[in-house]
Amino acid sequence: xxxxxxxxxxxxxxxxxxxSVSSGDILVTRTYSDRSDLDVAPAIPCAEAFSVIVQxxxxxxxxxxxxxxxxxxxxxxxxxxAIADLRDEWRCHHLSPFDNVxxxxxxxxxxxxxxxxxxxxxxxxxxxxxxxDPVMFGLAQALLPSLEDPEHANKxxxxxxxxxxxxxxxxxxxxxxxxxxxxxxxxxxxERLATEFLAAHFNRPFSVGELxxxxxxxxxxxxxxxxxxxxxxxxxxxxEYRVARVKELLLEDAPIAEVAICCGFADQSHMTRVFxxxxxxxxxxxRRRSRSGYTPVEQFRAV
Length: 303
Hints:
The protein is of the alpha+beta class.
């Protein structure tokens, strides 16, 4: 566990008060201040992680930069959530009193959680902004006593809260599907084999019959059971997986045509059609936006 920040009253402290507690590789930090004259906060260190922040009170005014671009100026209401990819550099200037809880969740932890619950598909969170999320607001509030006294926080309690956070985020913003009724679904071993087979064959041809055979099922029954288990057809699952892999490669220097072939598309045109249909932007625009760190102010809700 980790404790940061001071214990002076907010109006006596030189900056915001910060308290942190960690459980495994997830770091939870509460930051708050009653002042309106704070300096620009230091940049959040870049990392292979997601930042999930929940506002505990109404937050009237701040400025937010992604890289060198001012991407938002304004406020947020109590209970609002935002998810940011920490591979980008973020800086914030708090211009009014605020109180928030931030979860720093490594990419590897999200994917490990998916595998632990029998969902080995490629998992990444959608970077939503300014969305009301009563579940995350409640979980953040539940952690306040632990953040008030991190040295005496109950480790088991922290682990259980973090599992609830991972489950909610992965389902709500990561697209994982957990059927309420297991009737007509694949058995856990079949789910694991099916997703492992799909991930291993994402860039080479195979038939659904081959996939069904891995699970010792007929093709027609497998298709129905897979959809019941994952909330999408095998074809849709594979498309989403391929697009996620494309996004990773687009952040590198490989030509877009090479990315298309590497990820199992017939050519660049085919990949562009599929990518655009799923993400509402072309691969080239995604690459430019990701590299420049630019997001239009009018479309952005701050982290």
